Protein 1
Amino acid sequence: MNDKWHDILHKSGQITEQKLMDYLEGRLSPEDAHEVEKLMVDSGFLDDAVEGLSQMKDKQKIAGILQELNGQLKTKTRTKKKKNLLIIPDQLTLAVATTITVLLLIVIAYVIYRMYHSS
Amino acid sequence: MASHLDQITDQELLARYYQDGNAELLGVLLQRYTLLLFGVGMKYLKDEEEARDVVQHVFLKVLTELPKYRVEYFKSWLYMIAKNHCLMKLRDKGFSKLEMDEKLFIVKDEDETKSWHYEKERLLNSMTEAVEELADEQRTCITLFYLKKKSYQEISAFTGFSQMQVKSYIQNGKRNLKIILQRRIEHER
């Protein structure tokens, strides 16, 4: 098989934030830069992002912005979790209420059965 | 919680989220794309504050919409939400509707290359001839990039094209190669 063109068909993997930042700041070797660019050719998302991030004059600022955005995200998902937890007591209450009702019905049925048979 | 989830794939995280509805898992998943989302915002809106708003918009949209549907290609979906939001913002700023519509249709499939794999061997055998059919600039850039494994910067220095031109020749060259190869396969049938 003629595999010298293997790379053009090979679906590339993921990129770490650190590697992307190193690429943006020109800290990668030509070989590593080529690997990042191969991912960019395959992903419009990454390609657009690199183009946008390259426009940031102060690249050092990006880490701070990222930290802030991720912090806000954590707050949002934590609140959601609390909301989810509130549902659990409700479900528990429902389960307990159902069990009590079923038990009561069994007792009532038994009492009626006994009354019917004793008369 | 996040540390032991670092090695888990997006698909697995998503599956776990759909199983127990824990939004914290969604947080871990979204955090993987914060930088890319911010970058997309910067590309289209060219403003730091607006790019931050894009990220917040996508986060909110995902947290409210994801419980309602089963999303298979999470990364492509995120990209689509971010890009469409940016294009809406641009429209609000007065960009023409025609330009908007055109751009909305160019949302690239993140798994575009997947279909190539099915006929890999067959495609590789026709590749050299197909590359010969490309325009000179595209052929040069594609060859230096995929065969010589050169970076954009090296290709730019070697050819005299700007890095943006190099990128565009490689992307368009790859797209054209796909068309040429498909045509050849259909012709053989």
Protein 2
Amino acid sequence: MSRKLKISILLLAVLVIHVLLSWGYKRVMHESQLMKCDREMLSLPAKNYNLIAGNSHALSVQTEYWENSHVIASYGEEIHQSYFKLKHILEVQSSRPDTLLLSFDLGMMHQLALKNQAHQWYWNKYESSRELAPFASKKFEFYSHRIVSGIFPYMDGEVEVYDYFFAKKDSTQLMRKSTEIKKLDEIPPLRQLSDTCLKAQFSPCGIHFFEALLQLCKENSIVLALVRFPVTPHYYWSQSTCFEPEAYYTSCDSMLQKSGVNFKILDFHDRYEEEFFRDPHHLKGGEIRKEFTIEILKELHFSH
Amino acid sequence: MLFNSIEFLVFFLAVFVLFAIGGKWRWLILLGASYFFYMAWKWEYIILILASTIIDFLCGRGMANSPDDTVRKRYLYLSIISNLGILITFKYFNFFIDSIESVLEIKNNIYLNVILPVGISFYTFQTMSYSVDVYHRRIPAEKHLGYFALYVAYFPQLVAGPIERAGHILHQFKNSFQLKAENVFFGAQLILWGLFKKVVIADRLALFVDPIFNNTEHYHGASFALASFFFGIQIYCDFSGYTDMAIGLSKMFNIDLIKNFDRPYFSKSISEFWKRWHISLSRWFRDYLYIPLGGNRVLKMRWVLNIMITFVLSGLWHGANWTFIIWGALHGFYLLAERFLPQVKLPSFFKILLTFLLVQFAWIFFRANNLDEAWIIISTIFSPDFKLNLLYSEIVKTGISELNFVLSALLIASLYLKEALYKVPKPFVLKLIYLILVLFGIILFGIDNSKAFIYFQF
């Protein structure tokens, strides 16, 4: 067999496998929260609805108890990603929610790893590289990651594929044992507060996109409900080992006041005991999430 | 700029295109690319390479032009002192000061605030070998500064070897630059396999190894034993992966680099291990230190001393830390034991296993952050605190996912299988499947935040 033929066979085989893997991965991802978000976004009405966005903490709000609500939150979602989704809804889909319920976490404005985001292939369709690039420390890696993950969507998808085929489907099996959730009294001695650390919580990128999101809400008369979701004390303190959480939220509050947006902050971070958590920062499913959703609605003065 | 980055891929493709159209200026393209590659890391340190290049070139010319042995020797000393001077200043100065201070129990805070120039141990050793070879008239002194500069800075092997000899590579620069399809194909295969070993195996094993070696107080014997085993495989895949890529990249320019690894974990003795592991460094120490010290043609006690000096310095070459010195000394001790202990006839499998275990034990010193931690790890492994029953929970504690742990085990097994079957002829279909597996293995299972190669720090 000639070398040219061998190389042709190799290239053809690579192409076929690439196409099959891309197709297979998209199939696997079909049921993921990310793709559910896409379907949810496509089903949004033009107006008169409530939108739940942010990271996985926001998934504890149950849409079946909140009339006209839609959830587009996803795991590990950053503030700039929530901003780009909202922008897409407003500008591309010409849809406008009345209320935006957003997770309001300690790390939401932290320095982001823009050059190596998970599921970049997915975010490529929402994010504007031009808007994000000024905040990337390594521009070349920032752009190359976007291009490469667009070509090979399955490149960082081994966990999803593994979970799809092998992980236990019963979500209660995934819950951690309560003994694994460390107690509050193990944490404080490790804390060393510093102003520098507090300032580091507000990265230029985080601030920019938080303010941009506030601006979108203001321009479109969207009521912004910022929720400090329930977490275990262990998780709460592990997120703030070197700064005072209340000082962080005070700084956020001044940004909110300055923006002129119609907002409300709901603080549930220490509402539940550890037994109600499936892991350090996610509530268990079922009744507790229903109860929590009703509490939020009461605070927002919505009927349920 | 790491070999395992998109940045390097773009750089290499650009260099390769320029090389293809470069004609008689190919050496200049590679020299420019090599300096660019080095400066991409820290541009200021190019001065060190330039200084080393010019001094050694001039010393070589000086030796060639002088019939007087005393003058020749002076040029040799000038070359060695300047290279060792650079090496000691940037790599060992703080370590020596620190060691002196701790022995004398004083604190002067005389430290040099410098970053270790990447690859410094490799290119200084390479240039020193040139000067010694010219002095002993093993090779003629190079007349062309450009070719000599390329010998010092050739980017595929600049930062982590193989440590080339002038006699092996300089004539290739002059005669062999060609573009050949079979070289490109063979080189690409080596690059892919090297990249696979680095980003799929080594970086995955690091997910388990690093948390354990960096938090010794939180783990028990079984976890340490497993982490030590994993580290042995990690460092092999990391370093040999780099070397495969270097050889593959160079092959594309039709330049053959020397073989640096030859399935070292199949060695039946420690002496055989050192003929298969980091071959270019072992040969360097053999030719430029061990043999000049007298080698084995001396009295037994002197031979013992020669072995220990060679291995301790080999350990020190790896890093300015007592852990490396102990690692080197331990290997020296193994060699002496191999020579002096009564020989027991064992089946090959047990010889390989025994050698492997001894090498793994020594890796503990190599990987530990300091001697205290190395001692904690070893004493815990060999104590009743082994606690095999805690292994699973401690694996979970490292944060490595179930998937990555299972993959790690499978990858180690496949690595061994590949190396065991290296002599078996493979038909085209098998080669095709292998290439596809390696390629998609890198895309699917390559660790996203791939780390720098371990040997870059040396």
